[in-house]
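TA notes. Do not distribute before section.
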Amino acid sequence: MSPSQVDESVTMTEEAPTFAPCLPVPNVQEMVRKNPLQVPKRYERSEEEMEKENYKSHLSSEIPIIDFSLLSDGSKEELLKLDTALKEWGFFQVVNHGIKTELMQRMKELTAEFFGLPVEEKNKYAMPPDDIQGYGHTSVVSDEQILDWCDQLIFLVYPTKFRKLQFWPETPEGFKDMIEAYSIEIKRVGEELISSLSVILGLQKDELLGLHNEVLQGLRVNYYPPCSTPEQVWGLSPHSDASTISVVMQDDDVSGLEIRYKGSWVPVTPVPDTQVWRLFEAHTE
């Protein structure tokens, strides 16, 4: 598909909300650029936090894989696999989702180009202190809080009336269009998965979607600069998302994502053209 153009003239029928006020913190990428060996105390985790005794890498190959094309065709076997994945894991990987490889690869490339820009250019889209849209760092509520070793770029993409297009980067060229094109595809796959969940629950296919008066869809990009002591920092702190669905697109050659399963941490080995999904909250411990 051709990337859809971002509509710069969207009429705001309702004021776009603000979310999660955040204290200002240093730009990690710029800090590393100035001194690659510096790791401030505020980023260092305790030995207890970094303990890996409950780390089970051998379970990585057991993370459920769902064939989206079969799910869309109403395969009862694939619906049963999804049901089991949600009950036992709360996470699964999706293959044959129909999102073109070229689109996903271009999204990664343009994202990398954005974070490669001079900090002065990136700061044109700096996140305000009372919101989460834009370039910066979120969820900092205390001056004593230990920080994550990452910088972020966050947008609300749906409903369109909540978009704040002043935070959608003009550079690199085509990035705004790619954000739009990628978000459209994620929305398509996400809605189909929710419809499948309706069927699993014995409801009409469109019933759960109907309960979502307006789908609030956001896009977050996490950038993890190199660290001289990676064993002492977290790129992103352990957390549970509050959304109905979470989707993670990993770099094909970089491991790092881990999921919580029955009290242990399980690494998610990147698989090309595959995305990791979470539906609702899973209590598997």
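Switch to the second chain here.
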Amino acid sequence: MMSLCHNKINISCVKSSWSNDIRASLYSLMVLIILTTVAGNLLVIISISHFKQLHTLNNWLIQSMAIVDFLLGCLVMPYSMVRSVEHRWSFGEVFCKIHTSIDIMLSSASIFHLSFISIDRYYAVCDPLRYKTRINILVISLMIFISWSIPALFAFGMIFLELNFKGAEEMYYKHSHCIGSCSVFFSKISGVLAFMTSFYIPGSIMLCIYCRIYFIAKGQERSIHDAKQKVQIGLEERNGISRSRERKAVKTIGIVMGVFLTCWCPFFVCMVMDPFLDYTIPPTLNDALIWFGYLNSTFNPMVYAFFYPWFRRALKIILVGKIFQKDSSRSKLFSE
């Protein structure tokens, strides 16, 4: 006989049948993911906030994204962990809606930030002479505002107005709704809308911009190589530095794109296909893919920060306690 979360109610959800050893292993893995996400993004936030040399416009975007990922690790992942391992929700229906809304909002906001960061890097690498005129404080502020506001309006509006299962109420109560459950449900229309808003559009922008940066950087590298014998040594050295920065930018954006697609693509593909497959995708698989998507927030600080020498220097200062010394905020992390 199946074990129910609420034994006296026949519409209660099925409890987890996993053994204590399996649950303990899952809890350990998920706690590790949560702590890594929180610690990594907190270090990015502290570094950019504390060190004056890092108070640049493009770092505002990185810091804003780190705040999003930090909040995801603090506010969303712990409750998702209990839900995933125990296969039940013990925190009430209202908090379920709040948790689901914040989950969708922060996950989407993180993806929006990645998209805007790729736009910023495009102008920095491909149009450096006009970068400061195109990417100014107003533009960066607008990017950050959009990255927070649109996901918030979309997530809370869809969940609290119950637009996510509008038109598919019968399927919702048949497949998803039960006491002790807190799983997000999408109809065909809302699923496609969520797929386009949270993944396809920002992901396509990232992919197109990365391809554009890649081909432009390759073209610049060929031009520098062809002119190599005709320039002075000093100019050669400067071109070498510029070429190195271009390759590093291309490599970093390529890794960002690869990590983003690897983490989020499986979840969003299954999410948008599930309504068209009559909701036959197992809930356990959906849960696993959600956690795979969460890993993007775990890896973001590693990709965007750990790949840069300035962050390694900032991390060393923080970990050895020098951050509490007078004028530590003026520490030189890189040459201008």
